[in-house]
C-alpha cells in the first residue's frame, strides 16, 4: 500500500492504493516503513509539481527496518533500524533507497522521533558530497 497521486492538485488527489514492491538495487536497501514525516516539500509537490509517472508514491523522509540489503552494500544489515531521505517513495509500506541515503537510528530513539532524524543528516550529506 502507498499514498500516491496521478496529477498535482488539492489534497483530494491523494489516494491509498496497492503498489508493487520496490526492488532493492545492488547499492541499496529495502526498508519496511514504520514512521513517515509529512513536510512542506510533500505538500508543495502534491499541489503543484508534475511527477515522473502516474501513481507516483509521495514522500521524502521515513524511518523503518531494513529487510533486504543490496550485494554491494557493506555498512548496513537486515534488521537494522534506519532513517532515510530521498525523492519520493516514503509514504508506502516498503521503500527501496540507496544505502547512502540512510542513517542508522541511535539506540533508544523511537520511530516517531527518528523519522525527523534524516533531515539534519541529509544536509550534512549534501554538504560533504558536493563540497
Automatic annotation (TrEMBL):
<feature type="domain" description="Alcohol dehydrogenase-like N-terminal">
    <location>
        <begin position="26"/>
        <end position="106"/>
    </location>
</feature>
<dbReference type="InterPro" id="IPR011032">
    <property type="entry name" value="GroES-like_sf"/>
</dbReference>
<protein>
    <submittedName>
        <fullName>Alcohol dehydrogenase, zinc-binding</fullName>
    </submittedName>
</protein>
<dbReference type="GO" id="GO:0070402">
    <property type="term" value="F:NADPH binding"/>
</dbReference>
<dbReference type="Pfam" id="PF08240">
    <property type="entry name" value="ADH_N"/>
</dbReference>
<dbReference type="InterPro" id="IPR013154">
    <property type="entry name" value="ADH-like_N"/>
</dbReference>
<dbReference type="GO" id="GO:0016651">
    <property type="term" value="F:oxidoreductase activity, acting on NAD(P)H"/>
</dbReference>
<keyword id="KW-0521">NADP</keyword>
<keyword id="KW-0560">Oxidoreductase</keyword>
Amino acid at each position: 500500500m502507498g499514498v500516491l497521486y496521478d496529477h498535482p492538485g488539492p489534497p483530494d488527489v491523494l489516494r491509498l492504493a496497492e503498489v508493487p514492491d520496490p526492488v532493492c538495487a545492488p547499492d541499496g536497501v529495502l526498508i519496511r516503513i514504520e514512521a513517515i514525516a509529512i513536510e512542506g516539500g510533500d505538500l508543495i509537490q502534491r499541489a503543484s509539481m508534475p511527477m515522473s509517472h502516474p501513481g507516483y508514491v509521495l514522500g521524502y523522509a521515513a524511518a523503518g527496518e531494513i529487510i533486504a540489503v543490496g550485494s554491494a552494500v557493506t555498512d548496513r544489515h537486515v534488521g537494522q533500524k534506519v532513517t532515510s531521505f530521498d525523492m519520493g517513495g516514503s509514504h508506502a509500506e516498503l521503500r527501496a533507497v540507496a544505502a547512502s541515503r540512510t542513517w542508522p537510528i541511535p539506540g533508544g530513539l523511537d520511530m516517531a522521533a527518528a523519522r525527523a532524524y534524516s533531515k539534519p543528516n541529509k544536509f550534512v550529506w549534501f554538504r560533504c558530497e558536493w563540497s
